[in-house]
Automatic annotation (TrEMBL), chain A:
One of its GO terms (molecular function) is oxidoreductase activity. Residues 4-151 form the NADPH-dependent FMN reductase-like domain. NCBIfam families: LLM_duo_CE1759. It comes from Streptomyces griseicoloratus. Keywords: Flavoprotein, FMN, Oxidoreductase. This is NAD(P)H-dependent oxidoreductase. The keyword Oxidoreductase applies.
Amino acid sequence: MTELAVISGGLREPSSTRLLAERLEASVRKELGTLDIAAGSSFVELRPLGHPIIDAMITGFAAPALEEAFETVAEADGVIAVTPAFNASFSGLFKSFFDVLPEETLSDMPVLIGATGGTERHSLVLEHALRPMFSYLHAIVSPRGVYAATEDFGAPAQEGSALGRRITAAAADYARLVQGCGSHQRRDAFTEELTSMEQLLGGSDGESRR
Amino acid sequence: MTDMQWGIFTVGDVTRDPTTGRTPSEAERIQDTVTIARKVEEVGLDVFATGEHHNPPFVPSSPTTLLGHIAALTERIILSTSTTLITTNDPVKIAEDFSVLQHLSAGRTDVMLGRGNTGPVYPWFGQDIRQALPLSVEHYGLLRRLWREEVVDWEGKLRSPLQGFTLAPRPLDGVPPFVWHASIRTPEVAELAAYYGDGFFANHIFWPSSHTQKMVELYRRRFAHYGHGTPTEAIVGLGGQVFMRRNSQDAVDEFRPYFDNAPVYGHGPSLEEFTSMTPLTVGSPAQVIEKTLGFRDYVGDYQRQLFLIDHAGLPLKTVLEQLDLLGEEVVPVLRKEFAIGRPAGVPAAPTHQSLLRARAASEAATPDATPTEGLTKQ
């Protein structure tokens, strides 16, 4: 079973960001289905984690609800991440979540990026903000992201809605990426640190221990 | 014999009292620290430990100077650190400073080593924070040899070599101070402690107890792996943080402004959230007793418990009242309760005397070992 973690940074209820995230999730599962890959998914809504995210920045550790969100992402084989565009970038809350997410969680993780905004003039936020951040985090970012402007949600579906086509195309790309990457190997920083220490001690000056 | 040692550890922060707006002077804070240490002895606790910092708003940049002074004013308590920076201090100077302190205090000295996480301290002392781990390993390897071998020839990668170096003074009775390795977060420190069979001290203040449990489990398992004994024979210390008043609600009301404005976690989680997530206890002496007794449920029976009670701008008078409560009501009960059901194989907390006895016993067991003071490798 391929597990997807869907991260939505929308702030309002109902949220167009959540709506885009849901459409991407459904489309990706459908595309995975055509590849004979069964997929499950879990949603991580950032809005209720707002306080715990800031607390984690201040204290250095995550409250149980945030820890659970970290687990969901760490256990996933793929991540769909969607944010509203604020001031020419992702929202501060969206960025903050990834600032406190334990290092290496997204290493080698296939990620599908999406963003929403008032007008289509902000669509390059995908390429100028989301893609570089996920690249920095060593994720494998799917080539096609999806940006949805408010106007996109009003387009009649029977006219082969442009948004629907973009979602399908992006989901098809991403499904092939997830297929190619296979099951995601979780990095265990605790064990990695331990191993490097063990090697360091083994290579110390050979003084006999007690 | 004291199975468990009880005491306090100070960060040494000079912090504005948020309820009065008053900030003590550095001189005042240092004198207050001495008063607190003397009170630790007066109320019958066992250990006073000081942090080491090299930037404002902290005052303890020279821990052995402070502890040497306290040694002269006390007769019984163990003087320790929380922590001594093994990365940025020269191991030769650490060996010298603590040897002198050991002699001055007649063996009432041990040391807790840590890496330090203030970035700029590394370049200030000519070191590179990216080398923190190799520095810890190399410096500590040298420190051990300086305390255990009469003449040291040493060459490493991160410090100038030593040829024919003899530490002066030699450790008291040829027995080095007991070493604890302290960590907030990193498994490497637990591994270092386990490798050498030293003590492991979990900060146990800033992170949830589930994390402390994981670290102590790792340390105990690796202690056994390296052949120092069974996991229950490993030497474990814990931090902790308490604020008490006889009436629980009074404690909460009085402590809240200090908590809300505390330099480390202030303006973050609420006091209630932090209390539920971490070992912090704010309440009556009975509540502190109950929560503290629960620590051994997740770390096993252990050897040393230190509380943080003098930070975040709390005035001296309040801190001394905390010590009265600890000494009169809390620790006597905890000593009794922790003794009940403590398995026979759990070692007592290490002291200079217990290390002397252990050495005598191991020499009796291997009569052909060279008994020359200072030459015996341990």
